[in-house]
Amino acid sequence: MEEVAKHNKKDDVWVVVKGVVMDLTGFLDDHPGGANAILNFSGRDATEEFEMLHDDEVIPKYAPATVIGRVKGQEVTLEF
User: Fold this and answer.
1) What is the pairing mode between strands 67-70 and 8-9?
2) Less crowded by CB within 10 Å, the N or C end of the chain?
3) Residue 11 in domain
4) Span 69-76, average pLDDT
5) Is the distance from CB of 68 to CB of 23 less than 8 angstroms?
6) Total structural domains in the chain?
7) pTM of the model as a whole
8) Nearest to residue 26, comparing CAs of 67, 76, 69?
9) What's the mean pLDDT when you consider all of the chain?
């Protein structure tokens, strides 16, 4: 999470959901909820908020290319 926290700017946005690290920099303009919905959680874990609005298949279906890794020590609960 320490590394993820460094990526918290509009031109460098990483977000964690369910133990998965995603680089969403290139996805901001494509996000149906708008860029700010992602930017509000840049450099942080957005799992709780993600779960309120999305089903688990959203990331594998619409943004699998954004996945760049996983958080060490966290269980990944998304299936790809």
Assistant:
1) unpaired
2) C
3) yes
4) 92
5) yes
6) 1
7) 0.92
8) 67
9) 94
